[in-house]
Amino acid sequence: MSNTIVILGAGESGTGAAVLAQKMGYDVFLSDNGMIKSKYKDELIARGIAFEEGQHTETQLLKARLVVKSPGIPDTVPIVQALRTAGISVISEIEFAGQFTRAKMICITGTNGKTTTTMLTYHLLKELGFNVGLAGNVGLSLARQVAESDFDIYVLEISSFQLDGMFDFKADIAVLLNITPDHLYRYDNKFQNYIDSKFRIIQNQSSTDTFIYCADDSVIASELEKRTIESKKYPFTVNGTVNEGAFLQNNSLVVKINHEEEFIMKAEKLPLGGIHNTYNSMAAGIVARLNDMRSEKLKESFQTFTGVEHRLEKFLKIGGVRFINDSKATNVNSVWYALQSLDTPIVLIMGGKDEGNDYGMIKDLVRSKVKAIVCIGVDNSLIYSTFTGVVEVYDSEGMNDAVKKAYTLAHEGDTVLLSPACKSFDRFENFEDRGKQFKEAVKEL
Q: Three-class SS string for the chain?
């Protein structure tokens, strides 16, 4: 049998997988249909890893024993179809890396809140003194860290795209925050397919494993009635109480685990505002308590968390106007959370690569909280058709122009919020680039 592992895609995930595969003694060939970023190309050359860019040479790839596919590559592309037809397994980098470590896996997914919850969980465990790594959709790839580090625990942010390529991998602690329609173009435009992908977070779990989930999410609640869950369940809710899990009581976050002393912390003392961040804090708090974090240490650790860049990031205040960077809000539900969390008049900067957004769900919030919308997308027709007559809508010629317009529309005490509801690829390299351009434009005011 061939000893060749083929890696598809040369971003952080693919390059990390190539590094691990080489360390494990495989012959490695990396193929990227686009051009490889110089930092990854230089690393591949330095390590002597064979690669190609700008093409997929099918005859070469079909020699593989196994293919590790980067999550950004859809299953429907011809080369992936050809590999599967040839009977070659195509898996994700997380699935591949998980074979080579016995570390405890804390895996977090959901349509919204993944990054914040992952970063907060990592922060809490690190503060407790655990030898913990951060991977998945944030930080360095899991494969690279398995190859080069020796962590006892990994906190992983896992997307549906990564879950789709995971088969034997098992989360010791699985966290499911919420499920709302997103990325449906990758799921035959069927919401149930996307839901099924998210629920792969608990595949292979047994009664010795843990499933933490939002009991207030109607989609999750409906699915739980249809599924047999083997793992120990810990729900979190802001509506009522639970025997074990987390809830709000007397405006305090309460975590109850295994008949231990309750953890209680006033909600206003949590580092991040908004109901969505209360949910994120509940999930992270349950994980921390399951790892024996004492109440006082947990309170201290919550209060030293500073948040995540590009996610409701309070940036600067100029002339009494607060600027908030929420560039990571790439769907309408994220914008709903952002608007819901603010209590000042808002000038909203939004738009981008629209994948059929339904803006109706934020119409009432926009009517009650937003003074004006400034668009940054190439095509803003859907934003105009939804919000004309609800609020003033303006076009812009790019981020600098959008920020200037928003500032002139805002008054002292108002907030200018970048919360796009869309992917960034029409004008920006990614959401990080979009957020950085927003902050640079604000600094130039």
A: CCCEEEEECCCHHHHHHHHHHHHCCCEEEEEECCCCCHHHHHHHHHHCCEEEECCCCHHHHCCCCEEEECCCCCCCCHHHHHHHHCCCCEEEHHHHHHCCCCCEEEEEECCCCHHHHHHHHHHHHHHCCCCEEEEECCCCCHHHHHHHCCCCEEEEECCHHHHHCCCCCCCCEEEECCCCCCCHHHCCCCHHHHHHHHHHHHCCCCCCCEEEEECCCHHHHHHHHHCCCCCEEEEEECCCCCCCEEEEECCEEEEECCCCCCEEEEHHHCCCCCHHHHHHHHHHHHHHHHCCCCHHHHHHHHHCCCCCCCCCEEEEEECCEEEEECCCCCCHHHHHHHHHHCCCCEEEEECCECCCCCHHHHHHHHHHHEEEEEECCCCCHHHHHHHCCCCEEECCCCHHHHHHHHHHHCCCCCEEEECCCCECCCCCCCHHHHHHHHHHHHHCC
